[in-house]
Design brief:
Length: about 260
C-alpha cells in the first residue's frame, strides 16, 4: 500500500532508512493501518541498513492514537476489539505491537527525531527507538490513562528501563505532560537541541553511528541491551565472548 493510504512511509538511502509518519494534518495521529505498515517495514529493510530514523512530518512527532478511527466501529476500533474473545483481542494487540518492536532489532540502531507532541502511541514509538533526539519544543505524555486504557504498544518496559519504576508509574498513572528539559533530566533524551537544529543533530548522530565497524556496533548493542538482565559476572562473560568473536573476525578466523 502507498504512504498516502497507510499514513507512513519508508525511504532508504544506503545504510540509513527513514520512517516518516506522514499525516501532518492530524499531527501524525496513529492508526492500526500505520502499525501494520510499520511492521512490514522490517521485512522490507535492505540488508545494508544500519540506522533507522523515525520522524513525524510537520510540527509534531505524533499526537498519539487517532481517536476518530479508534472510536468508530470499524476494524481496530475500541468497539470491535471489545467484541473479540480475550485471546483474539490479545493477538490483535500483539500485531499492533509488532509495528513498534521491530525497532529493537539487534542489527540496526533506531533513532527517534522528536519535535512537538509525542503523546500516547507517539511517546511509545519514541521509546521503541534506541536513541531519542529531542527538539526543545518536544512534549511527552503517556496519555492512555485519560481514556481509561493502559499503554500497550511495548512502551512500559522501555520506560521503566530508562527512568525506573516509581517515575515510570507516576508518568503513566497521571498522564501528565513533560517538556524536553525534564525528559533530558530524567534520562529519556539522548540529546536535546534547538528545534531548527533537529535535522542536523540527527544527521550528525547517524554519521557517528555509521563511523564504527558494523559488526562491532552490533555486538556493543547486544552487550548494552542485555546488561540489565545479567549479573556482573554474566556481563563480564558476555564481554569476553563478544571480544573473542571480534578478535577472531578481525584476524580472519571467524567461522
Amino acid at each position: 500500500m502507498t504512504a498516502e493510504a497507510t499514513g507512513v512511509r519508508l525511504e532508504c538511502d544506503g545504510p540509513v532508512a527513514t520512517v516518516t509518519l506522514c499525516r501532518p494534518d492530524v499531527l501524525n495521529a496513529q492508526t492500526p493501518a500505520m502499525w501494520r505498515a510499520m511492521s512490514e517495514f522490517s521485512r522490507d529493510l535492505p540488508g545494508d541498513v544500519r540506522v533507522v530514523v523515525v520522524r513525524g512530518e510537520g510540527r509534531a512527532f505524533s499526537a498519539g492514537l487517532d481517536l476518530s478511527v479508534a472510536g468508530a466501529s470499524g476494524p481496530g476500533s475500541f468497539a470491535e476489539l471489545a467484541t473479540l474473545p480475550e485471546q483474539e483481542c490479545a493477538d490483535r494487540i500483539a500485531e499492533f505491537q509488532a509495528g513498534f518492536t521491530w525497532l529493537h532489532r539487534p542489527d540496526v540502531i533506531s533513532v527517534a527525531a522528536v519535535q512537538g507532541h509525542a503523546i500516547g502511541a507517539g511517546f511509545q514509538l519514541a521509546l521503541a527507538c534506541d536513541l531519542r533526539v529531542l527538539a526543545e519544543d518536544a512534549k511527552f505524555s503517556m496519555a492512555e490513562v485519560t481514556l481509561g486504557l493502559v499503554p500497550d504498544l511495548a512502551g512500559t518496559k522501555r520506560l521503566v528501563d530508562l527512568v525506573g519504576y516509581s517515575r515510570a508509574l507516576e508518568i503513566c498513572a497521571t498522564g501528565r505532560r513533560m517538556d524536553a528539559a525534564e525528559a533530558d533530566r530524567i534520562g529519556l533524551a539522548t540529546l536535546v537541541v534547538p528545534t531548527v537544529e533537529l535535522d542536523v543533530a540527527v544527521r550528525d548522530l547517524t554519521a557517528g553511528l555509521l563511523a564504527g565497524n558494523r559488526d562491532a556496533v552490533v555486538e556493543i548493542k547486544a552487550l548494552i541491551a542485555g546488561a540489565t538482565g545479567r549479573s556482573a559476572a554474566e556481563q563480564q562473560r558476555a564481554e569476553r565472548e563478544a571480544q573473542t568473536r571480534r578478535l577472531r573476525d578481525l584476524a580472519g578466523r571467524g567461522e
